[in-house]
Specification:
CATH class of the largest domain: Alpha Beta
Strand order of the largest sheet: 2-1-3-12-6-13
Number of strands: 13
CATH superfamily of the largest domain: Periplasmic binding protein-like II
Number of domains: 2
Helix content: 40-55%
Number of helices: 21
Strand content: 5-15%
Shape: globular
Largest sheet: 6 strands, mixed
Structural class: alpha+beta
Radius of gyration: 23 Å
Amino acid sequence: MSRLSASRREFLKWAGLTGAAALATACGATAAPTTAPTTVAGAATAATATAAVTATATTAAATEAAATPTLSAEAQATANAVESARATESAIPLEGLPQDPALSMTEDQLLAKMDEDKKKAASEGKTVIEWLSAWGTILSDKTQPHYWLMRDYMQQNPNVFIAYTPASAYTGAFNEVIMMRIASGDPPDVIYHYSSPVAYAARGACLQLDPLMDAHPKLKASALVPNGLAQVQWKGKTWSIPCTMSPSLVFYSEAKLKELGVPTDQDKLPQTWDDLRALSGKMTKWNGDTLAYAGFLPLAGGFTLYGQIASMGGSLWDGEKYTINSAENVDFLKYILSWLDAEYKGSIDKVNASGSWGGLYPGNAMPMGIQGIILDGFWNFAHCPPEFQYVYAKTPTAQKGQTPWNSSWPNMMFIPAKAKHPKEAFDFTAYCTIDGAKWWWNQWADVPSWKDFPADQPSKEHVARVGEEKALAIAKFARVLVNEVVMQWNSPVDDIATDELGRMLDQVLHKVTDPKTAADNAQKAIQAKLDEVSTSG
């Protein structure tokens, strides 16, 4: 599975980064390594293992190809279109990058050089800051922002060396890696993650950052978007810095809107969920039991659930307690179930069997021309094939005039409680969040949480895809969305809650359990875990 064909939640599940069971095991009082880490110095071992996996995968692929019947002309055309879109995705230029030897190195060469530079820095008496990242090696999977952040910071601070350790340096789930490193007594200085650090804070494994923020000349609490900062605060204290945010919004197929005679101006798009449902009904088409064209799929899954429920007047989590089985939330579940019945033959299985729904990645239904509306994260702007034309708007609400709350998936940096260089690690975190925010924005196009980041500075990634004018409009829209982010992520049992909420939705949509019972069960299970953590803490 690649990021090109998976939502972030799917990617994290595949990578073993978000499973509640893994985190619960890793965060236990006697957490111990379940797998042996492969350090940068031992990269040859990892390369050998990777080569073995690749060889196995190649053999399996060849076997599968031999057993696969010849595609029809229509199916082959679809496959060719997907591959073309993916090729375009890989070829999007990132203008303005400085000339640097790293760009001509292989990943192995760069890792070897970084290891040599680290040893030299230590011998020269420099402060070595280890940055453990959930992402992979620096020149793969669009993680180049890491390299430029480190490069610039070290140029400005010659007595500091940033030693980058990618998740790929270890086997096993990343949360297990973190707890293994913490339990070993040799934690990294700072960790970059997109899963809640509050689970670590609840177990005393995460450093409270408020004193460091108060003492820093730039990265004070007042420098960050309040809604973004709230997502990493628990019990009145700050446990992480949300370097970037990725709020959710609604994307519409411009071609389908024009086909239906629907205005494409943002203020003319559906303002309420009932309006969206009516428009979706005009789009959806079935060919027997196959969903030939989908409007909006009210499946409410993934990270966007919190924002969807809030926009309908409900709430799952307020920063202190869960209210999953409230009357408003049960009504929301009934609403999406009635939508499924009315528009999608009452069968989530028929829907799932008909296509790869959601997302604007190459290969997803919307860019392939068989879906009209999706609700997903801001990162989709940076992955949609340039030839696909869309318009976008805020999340609908129950009634006009209400706050269009959205969910945001932040990228966070936090410091283990026993880090060797907490102040220096925080200084680097501050740089990544404020002065270095341009690198995240221009190359990943996630939205900086720095409150004063210029709204008139379009992402170069967006400019390369849609041109300067549209990219500027997207940049300005982003600064509005970040102020309408709902409370999320800052629960000490967030990963467990995510799994239980997914189970609740699955049972409701498969009609295994009625909405009220499913919500009651989720509330009971999550509250029990929260009480357990609160008692042990």
